[in-house]
Amino acid sequence: MRVPYGSMQQAKDNGVMQVTSVNVGRAVRIRAGARTVMSAISKRPVGGRVGVLPVGLQGDEQADLSVHGGLSKAVYAYPSEHVDFWRTVRAQAGVALWDAALEPGALGENLTLAGLVEDHVWVGDVLRFPQCALAVSEPRQPCFKFNAAMGFAQAAKLMVQSAWCGFYLAVREPGSIEAGERFALEPGPREVRIDELFRAITSSRRTA
Predict the structure, then answer these.
(1) How many domains does the chain fold into?
(2) Residue 11: band (very low, low, confident or very high) from pLDDT cuts 50, 70, 90
(3) Is beta strand 167-173 parallel, antiparallel or unpaired with respect to 75-79?
(4) How many CB atoms lie within 10 A of CB 121?
(5) 135: containing domain
């Protein structure tokens, strides 16, 4: 099940926090610049309840466990609020038509969420779903594979500039999850926001 766009927009307007799509993918060979590499960045929506295991969603893979996956980065969530931006810049870059849809999972996310963006979520916050709980661990760091997924070379740079990075989640309570579910946000220590940490990390890398 995937939540229709109209319902997704209504959730945003009403301030409801909701899972709009659950996405998984298998590692395959992709062309990234001059290289051919293994990647599972292209996720696809799946219907029904999906198992949430300590190391990620059932049926999902990560090709490079040094940068994705593991207990602290088991699930990757991305706000649906940013999808229109990425659709527009892909059209401006000439890699997609202006009216081309950008399907859930296209940015590599396992959970497409409505109602929660990076400057409203802190490391340590817990997203409590009806049948599982996930703890915010860190922001996503874009790499050359993100450029390949978006189809143009400046995609990772735009993510850095906007800080629209999404966030990784550790599995606090395993269970299952399904598109359409609402969730609650339980505050953690509230010491650093995801967008603040993302900017700090990317800034230090640029000056190193």
Answers:
(1) 1
(2) very low
(3) antiparallel
(4) 23
(5) 5-207
